[in-house]
Structures are given as structure tokens and as C-alpha cells.
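lol so apparently i was supposed to do this last week
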Amino acid sequence: MTTLLVNARVLTMDDRRPRAEALAIRDGRIAAVGSREEVERYRDRESDVIDLGGKSVLPGFIDPHNHFAIGALESFWADCRGARSIPEIQQRLAEAARRTPDGEWVRGLGYDHHALAERRHPTRHDLDEAVPDRPALLLHYSHHQGVASSRALAAAGITRATRDPAGGEIARDRTGEPTGLLFERAMSGVESRSREGWEDRFVEVARRASLAYAAHGLTTIEDAAVTPAMARRYAEARERHALAIHVEEMMVGSDGWFERPGDAAPGRTLKLFVDGGYRCAMRVTRDGQERTSGFLFYDRSELADVVAGALAAGRRVTCHAIGNLGVERAVDAIGDALARVPGGRGRVRIDHAIFLTGELVRRIAGLGVPLVEQPSFLYDVGGMRPPPGVDVRPFRTVRRAGIRQAFSSDFPCGSLSPLVGIHAAVTRRSRSGEVESPDEALGVHEALEASTIEAARVMGLEDDCGSLTPGKRADLIVLSAHPGDVPATELLDLNVLQTWVSGLRVYPA
Ligand SMILES: [Zn+2]
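anyway here it is w/ zinc ion bound
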């Protein structure tokens, strides 16, 4: 059966035919894009013909760096966003403990220590008081640090004798005893244990979560941190048709988010953390003095070996790197790896790259490595004044250098809706109205490319999605107005009216 969508303003995001007025869909794929007459040829006796009344049609949005599983499971956990004091957090954890089945960990999320009256992070003892009878983990909103209770530390084998891992730190009191606060890689083991049991219930929440994504116009995403155990849950969810959109997986190690994936890890993309998240690796020169800060997870030769090994085995590699020193380490190692495995070019990317320098931009362009950036952070967190000699989110400079750039939300670290990121990339304006480096703004069409076709390219999926091109999947959205017609400041007010995945309308359901 063929479905015809007619009387539409189609923005294909395919340069060979940028605009059209109709589409024909057959077997979940696009059969034709063009004028009404051109697609009429695909009409048969059972064809559905849908008149879109002149509305705009675009390819579905693609989010190549998202944390779908974590976001979906959050409904089970204590939401500590907006908490103003430690007793308030304790109360939310205790409430969550009452509805947590026996044997499961209590998990809290989203606290911000700067917003707490006590002006400090909670400690293991604060958590022990709230949840005395089982392990508890409270995650910071950054997802890159968290507080473990005494039972949680014991379960992960963290004692005063435990050494800090490369890329992490166990906070300690004056006597050397762990306070419960774990930075970056020191949190890996506790974090993965805290959700193991909850992951059994992924299928229960996956359907509703994926429908919420579809309501934002998302049709393909990549989960940027999937452990081998979580990959089995994804397989189960697909078998039970619980995912309403396409979900790709980026593999991390079996011991958690920040751990290197083993060679045996399934999946085609490996995720490697090069530096921290909240404490990314920076190199800044002030008053003639060079200072470095933050965590680096690998030395150069070790990282080059891992990248080269994965590329030689035919895998794709994503390097998380945020600070300019983190990006420098990634660029050094990727350069070394590509010299050994030239065929790996095009299969390695850098995600985040928030702090860059002119020199780094030149080197990234030279290596042909694409960047996956998060403009929504600019909106959510606010504008930043970069340290001297460093550029923050220099989208325009990156594009001018010929580097491919794709956008992502990093949800739940950033807002899920791609329109938030597109709006921020075009206006450089935060939620509170601050404007960050306005020279680095992109045009609407460029921001749409970064959220569709370029996002498909960084995942190697450009033959399947990212533009409305015959042969690709019929993943598309209907918008309330044409993005190029509305003032940039109103991009946030656009509504996704319909979302189609593989030729079927999934939103509204
Ligand atoms: Zn992420």
C-alpha cells in the first residue's frame, strides 16, 4: 500500500532537491518526492491520500547523543531537581525508598549543590539517615558526580584504602575517610550497580518514553552510554515493539558509564571518555601563567591504542571531550590512530567539544573529524564568558573551517526538544536572555542540517535517514509553521503536529 502526502511545503534537507510539495511512501520508505503529479504515479486503488493543507514537512529530527535509557528509567527514582536544602533531599529520598521494591537501590537525581542552603554537597551520612536499610545513590544534575551512602560504598568495595582511579576522585574527609562524594570515574561502579535491578523494568517505560520523543519530532536517536547489560534490555524492548522510534546504541564498559568498552562489547560504536564532564580538562593561560584543571581519563598512547584497535576492527568510535585540554588529547590520539589505520577516517567523532581554540579547530578540520555539539546547554545553563584564548561553542568558526557538525541534546543533561537547540544555535540566547558570542550564531537552515542530515552522517546512517530522499526511511515531521518564515526568537514556539516513523504516524498516536 502507498501513502501519499500532498499539498505540503516539503523541506527535504537534500541539496539535490531542496523543496517539494508531495511525497509517496511505500513499505516504510520514501518512494517519491516532488510535485503532486510526480507522486500521483505511485497511487494505487488502496492508497491513502493525506492533504496537509499547506503545512511544512521536514525529515524527523535526529539526536546522535542522548541518554534514552536513563531518561526513561528516571520515573522510578527520587527527583531532587530544584531541592533547596539537604533535609529536602533526605525527604525525597525517604519517600522514594518507601516505593522502592525490596532488594533495589534507592536512586536520587538532579541535585545542585549551589542551590542548597548548606552550600555543600550532601554526605554519605546524610544519605544514611534518609535511607538506613539499603544502598542509595544521589546523582548530581551533571551526571558526572554523585553521593553514595555507606551501604552503597560498601557494595562497590570503596574504602579508605581505595585509590583514586585515573579520571576520577573519591572525596575524603580530614581523616582520609570517603565522604560519599564521588567524582567522574570514581562513580562508575556505584552508578551501574544502582540501576541494574531497575533496568529489568526498562520495557515497561520504554514505550511511553519513546512516544514522548516522537512528540518532539525525534525519529532516530543514539543512546550515548549503553552497557552490555543495557544492550540486552534494548534487544528485549525491540522484540516487544516497545520502541516507537529508532534507537542506536553507543557501547560503554560492563562496569559503567565511564569505563572503556571491552573488545567483546557488542554494537558498532564505542564510547570513550577522554576527559570529565563537570570537571572537564582545561588548559588556560592567565597573567602569563599556564594552569591545567579537570580530569583526563587516558594518556595519549593508551587512547591512541584503543581508538586504533576499534577502527581496525571496523567499529566506530565516539570520543567524549569537553575542555580544550580534553579535546587536545582526543585530537592527538585520533591523529596517531588514523596514521596507523587510515581506513578509519570517517568512523571517529568528537562529542561536546565545548571549549576550542583556533589551533584545535584547524587540527580537527585537517583530520576530517566531525563534532557533535549541544546548543541546548547554552539555552538551559546560560551563556559563558570564555577564558582568555579559548572559544566557547564556536559553531560558526567550526562550520567555516569545513568541519561537519551535528547537534544533540544529551538529554536528560539538556532539554530534549531539538527546537531548543536550534533556537539557541541561531540566537545564542539563554533562557534568562544572556547572549553568548553572537558572532558564532548559525542560520536556521544550517541549524536544521545539524539536527537532521548531518546528525545522520555522524552515525553513518545517511543512506537511511536525515533527508527526505527516495529510498530512505519515511521518517518525517509536520510543523505548525515553516522554520524559515518565523523570527528566530519564535523558533521555540513551533509545534510538532505529526511525527511519522518508517511510514507510520506515531504522533499523535
Ligand atoms: Zn552524554
